[in-house]
Amino acid sequence: MIRAIKMAAKAHELFFTEHAVQAMLDDDENEESVSNAIAHASSFTCQPDGTWRVHGDGLTAIVAMRPGVIVVTIFV
Fold it and tell me: What pTM does this model have?
């Protein structure tokens, strides 16, 4: 799972929900900076609901695995 998330992030093949995009705009981040942070993340925590809390480069994102796509649902 972690490898798939990192590979999708490196290839810039993540899908961002509207909520995540708005949070990125509010924090002066963009899809590229968040993708790079996820690609080089140092911490992945599986949460009870099956999503992953990803920490990297001072950013935190919640990532969900869906069939054929990896979704950034929340950016913090």
Answer: 0.89
